[in-house]
Amino acid sequence: MSVPQFLPQSSNLASFLALHEEAHLREVLGRAGGNRSLAAEWLGIRGRQLYNKLERYCIES
Fold this sequence. Notes:
CATH topology of the domain at 15-56: Arc Repressor Mutant, subunit A
Largest sheet: none
Structural class: mainly alpha
Shape: elongated
Helix content: 55-70%
CATH class of the domain at 15-56: Mainly Alpha
CATH architecture of the domain at 15-56: Orthogonal Bundle
Radius of gyration: 14 Å
Strand content: under 5%
C-alpha cells in the first residue's frame, strides 16, 4: 500500500503524536509561566506524569 501524497514517506502515528505532544506541552507550560503544577492541572494529568513527559522531550521550565 502506498502512502498518500499529502503524507511524508516517513510519517507514522507515533512520531506525529510525539511531535504534537511536545509542542502542546511547551505551549501550556509557557502559558503557565513555567509553573509545572498549574500546567499539569490544565492538562488534566498528575504532576509526576508531566515531569516524565518533560524529561522525555528535554523540556526545562
